[in-house]
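pasting for the record
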Amino acid sequence: MKGFQKRGYKLEYADALLKKAQKPKKIMLTFLFVIIVLIAASAFSYSFLSSNQKMDLSNPLSGFSITGNAISPGAQNSQQEITLAEIQITPDFISYLLNEIGAWKLTPNPLTFEKPIINFKIEDKTFHSIIGKEIITLEGSNNKADLQFDTNKKDIINAIQSDTPDVVFKESIVAGNTKIQMLTSEAELFSKGYLALYNSLK
């Protein structure tokens, strides 16, 4: 301040110059503080959203056993048989299968928080599943899906009926009966954790 006075500047003017010089520094500090808060909030939100666990879903074919081309109830007091053609694939089948093959490990995009979406095309029927704290499956495809499985009814039923659905479903992929289509960029797939799922099925 004395240096300003020696140069002939008034005290008030010198004080104004100093305050003006300090403004960019304060703005920068404020900006950095806001960025740190946003990063911390995002990290907390992502950690909360991505802490998924395998769900305890009921097998939609529980209590039934496959005999030839028919499925008959396992209960001793019933002789009713349902042919393969009579079985209707429902959203419950898809949610159960995805849970068993490890889709519950998928996470939202850490930047956009968009949840993973998987399409299923089973002959003439389509479904899409949204993976979060739970797996929500609806009829119809979704144009925002990341991945699509093109498969058939028999292989879906075989996988669900098996004690190791992930192994049977993988066998269907290896045999070429089930195909995987990537519907988004590799960066998006990587950000949601699809790499581990894809590798486990190939």
